[in-house]
Amino acid sequence: MGTAILDDEHKVRLNGLTEHLEICDASGNRVGRFLPEAVYMRLIYDLAKAEFAREEAEEAANGIVRKWDGTNGKTTAAAIDYVKQVAEKAACPK
Question: How far apart are CA 23 and CA 15, in angstroms?
Answer without folding.
Answer: 12
